[in-house]
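Students often ask why we bother encoding 3D structure as a string. The short answer is that it lets us treat folding as translation between two languages. Here is a chain of 334 residues written in the first language.
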Amino acid sequence: MGCVALSNNSLSGKFPSFLQNLTTVFFLDLSWNKFSGRLPMWIGSLTSLRVIRLSHNKFFGSIPMNITNLPCLQYMDLNNNKISGSLPIYLSNLKFMTNTSMMGCYYSAELWNPHLNSVSTVLKGQELNYGSIYRVLQTRMMSIDLSSNNLIGEIPEEIVFLDDLVNLNLSRNHLSGVVPNKIGEMQSLESLDLSRNMLSGEIPASLSNLTFLSYMDLSYNNLTGRIPSGSQLDTLYAEYPSMYIGNTGLCGHPLQNNCSSEGHAPKQGGLGRTEGGHGIQFFYLGLGCGFVVGTWMAFGVLMFKRSWRIACFRLSDKLCDKVYVLVAVWARQT
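And here it is in the second language, the structure alphabet:
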């Protein structure tokens, strides 16, 4: 059996144990079910596996280390589960996702079967149908989707060794630390989604080297500093203007938030205003308070000081008389 496609069947229980003996399976799809429990260590014995789709289940625990025993794995989708722990360094040992030889990985005649399921993946922020299984394998569509899980810790620098990876989606986790400085070495990347984590630090300048990058989302993190320059990133921002949103510490082109001389965004207070904005705000606040206080003081004096009140009214009468005379004289002259 080369293909196991059991998606959208409301299946439950643990990872199916009967799969352990299917060492020739190259396509495994258990997505959109109700499976739970940990991913088994024996998954690494399915050495012919090329595509594994386990998304939208309730699997928990860490990603088993034995998954790196799959020499031909090119497509791994575990999104929308409860996978926890740190992002494993050993994922960089998925050799087929690097610019290495395809030796030992071949196409089966079964791939031409038109009844086999098509493959979809989350690209450019939405789930897109990538076509038949044959097309995925023929074009070497390299993808890792671990979005919407409970991953913590830093993104390991070793992830950049997967330089043949086309899609990397780590969004909606609890990842912290910085974006790997050498991420620009992943020259095949077309889609990068690190949104809705707790990443900090500056955006690596090497991102501007990704000439094939057609989608990037870094929104809703804690990133700071000046945004790297480059025509590629400018083009992406023009198409996806929300790619930096939710990072109040970012500054510089193409954002309207200018950087300080140190290359950082101006400090912001609880209302999200810059320090200069606060000064203007306090000035007008003081002006308004002074006007109100002064008016009430004058009103209070006139109310309780009879002699001042009479003098004030006499003064106003004299002013009115003078204005009346001036207007009358001007009217006769014209």
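Translate back mentally: The longest strand covers residues 126-132. Keep this in mind for the problem set.
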